[in-house]
Amino acid sequence: MEHSINIITREFKADPFPFYALMRAEKPVCCVTVPGMGKAWLVTRYDDVAAVLKDSRFAKNPLNASEQPWLPAFAKPLQRNMLDLDEPDHARLRTLVHKAFTPAMVERLQERIQRIADHLLDAVEAKGSMDLVRAYALPLPLTVIVELLGIPGQDRDRFHRWSKALVKTPTRLNMVFALPSLMAFMRYLRQLFRQLRSAPQEGLLTALVQVEEAGDRLSEDELLAMAFLLLIAGHETTVNLISSGTLALLQYPDQLERLRADPSLIKSAVEELLRYTNPLETTTPRYALEETTVADVTIPRGALVLAAVASANRDATQFDDPDRLDITRQANRHLAFGLGAHFCLGAPLARLEGQIAINTIVHRLPHLRLAVPVESLRWRATPVLRGLEALPVRW
Ligand code: HEM
Hints:
Layout: H1 10-14, H2 17-26, E1 29-34, E2 38-43, H3 46-54, E3 58-59, H4 89-98, H5 103-107, H6 110-124, E4 129-131, H7 132-137, H8 139-149, H9 156-166, H10 172-198, H11 204-214, H12 220-236, H13 238-251, H14 253-261, H15 266-277, E5 286-288, E6 292-294, E7 297-299, E8 304-307, H16 309-312, H17 347-364, E9 369-370, E10 392-394
Parallel strand pairs: 2-8
Antiparallel strand pairs: 1-2, 3-5, 4-10, 5-8, 6-7, 9-10
Helix pairs in contact: 6-8, 6-17, 8-12, 9-10, 13-15, 13-17, 15-17
């Protein structure tokens, strides 16, 4: 079985949890194939996942790896993003934007996010059906991150087309097809930076452009990589929380009814939906700086390691009855946002978006139901992320 399991097929994505349960029981560190990445060491138990994420011997910078992922030369600047870097660069970059994502700052977006959610539902309510991904779960976080960065609204849809091409399976062939999107995206951002330098606007990008101009805290490559990371991380994940989260509630009508009856449950409900659905199935790659032992398995120096947070989040040593959705679950120490130095910067924003989006749809559309059999739903064949291609619903 070594290396033979491909963990990013649509079939695997639809229900990876039996495989993870088997691995936790029998092979807590196993080798899998990830197209475009090659062989990866997959860590599946809660305690081991938490330990790997806190262990600086598992580095993020691919320059520390023995086999480096293929990237065309023009795209190399994008590697200068905080998620692909180790200390001290990582902390320097994270500090530059950290303030914009604190719970207090994010709380100020509450009314605006609510208006976006209501506006999206106003547009479809009379129709009686929609693809929830396209009409609701995607445009909501995309609009929020675009506005937060201060990017002209009319460019929103172009971003998603580009970013969708980029998060596809990173096979060489897909990479080749994605190159025009990548180039267009980078060209667009560089042009925007030029505009913002001469005519500053509201928003985080203008602030970053000014930091870049002011001195040595942010290089031009890092500015580009930062904008790129925030745009992609800011919506490709939350779309999955809102869509897979709504699907999970539709599959557990008793939980859905509880939430309808008591909206104050939304905070614990969203934590449980994060744990249960796993918008990120594994973390992004880490590389072993030295030979390291995890769960009695020796991981060689330079090996690519993936921490399966989706598996950790269903580990019975940490969660009672882990395969059951319980929106009132207490002490829910899930790892959906990762752990350690790279813990999700956008967690407060993602939580607020998830809470508003799910509460709004559940209360405004009391007859919401799936419009197709659940088995016919298609999951995206992407590494790292876990999400639906489309979610047809009616009411
Ligand atoms: C439900 C939604 C989200 C989930 C489940 C999620 C999950 C994660 C996880 C697991 C990581 C760590 C990856 C690793 O260690 O390899 C991460 C990092 C990150 N996330 Fe999120 N995320 C979400 C939404 C957001 C949003 C809305 C933003 C807004 C900009 C964001 C920005 C980031 C950034 C910048 C990092 C890198 C942090 C660092 O390297 O220090 N995320 N996210």
